[in-house]
Every structure is written in C-alpha cells, then in structure tokens.
TrEMBL record:
Family: Belongs to the remorin family.
The protein's name in its UniProt record: Os10g0503800 protein
Residue ranges annotated for the Remorin N-terminal domain, each copy included: 14-57
Organism per entry: Oryza sativa subsp. japonica
Alphabetized InterPro entries for the sequence: Remorin_C, Remorin_N
Length: 133
C-alpha cells in the first residue's frame, strides 16, 4: 500500500490578521448582556444574597413581560374576532338590502305592466264606445 502523507499544519495567523481582529469594534451590548454584567458585579462585590436577589428580579421581569405579551396577544385575537363578526354582519346587511331592492324593483315592474295594460284596456274601451256613438 502507498503511504499517505500527513496533512500540512495550518499556517499560523500573522500579526496583520491579529491586528485587524483587534481593530474590529466589539458588538453593542444588549440588555441581556447588561443584566448578566450586573449579576457578575453583584457576585464579585456582595455574594450570593445579592446575586439571588438580582436573579429573582430578572425572573420576575421576564415573567411579567411574558404575561404582558400574552395579554396583548389575547387582545389582538379578540379584536380580530370582533372585526370578523362586524364584517360578517355588514355583508349580511348588504345582501339583505340587495335582496329587498330586487324585490321592490320586481314589484315596480309588475305595477308598471299592470298600469300600462289597464290603461290600454280602458283606452280600447273608450275607442269602442266612441265608435258606437
């Protein structure tokens, strides 16, 4: 069998790359990072009691924010449900209005036809009467 040569070692980063990495600014700290930093400061300065109190505060704030998010979600659901019901009612009203308008139009047309046929009949009767006289 042929021997396989071991892979070449990776080249070490040069000073230029190290300098570039050092020149890249650190990303902005988020609120969570700040809370962790505060917890570290408390642990370094006061001990476990302060750290426990801080962690309890963080847990309480997290719970409260989750409750607020849930409440907002429920409000949005209720608003959407109410808007849907209002839209359904408006649609039903519009269909009923259109139905009644069509019925009124039908009665108007039949009334006009009846009126015109009645007037024709009367006119014909008058013509017959005049011709007899």
């Amino acid at each position: 069998m042929a021997e396989v040569a071991p892979p070449a070692p990776a080249p070490e980063p040069t000073k230029d790359i190290a300098e570039e990495r050092a020149a890249v600014p650190a990303p902005e700290e988020s609120k969570a990072m700040t809370v962790v930093d505060d917890a570290e400061k408390a642990a370094a300065t006061g001990g476990s009691h302060e750290r426990d109190a801080l962690l309890t505060t963080v847990a309480t704030e997290k719970r409260i924010s989750l409750i607020k998010a849930w409440e907002e979600n429920e409000k949005a659901k209720a608003d959407n449900k109410a808007a849907k019901k209002l839209a359904d009612i408006a649609s039903w009203e519009n269909s009923k209005v259109a139905e009644i308008e069509a019925e009124i139009k039908k009665y108007q047309v039949s009334s006009a036809q009846l009126s015109s046929s009645t007037s024709r009949t009367r006119r014909d009767q008058l013509c017959v009467c005049e011709s007899l006289s």
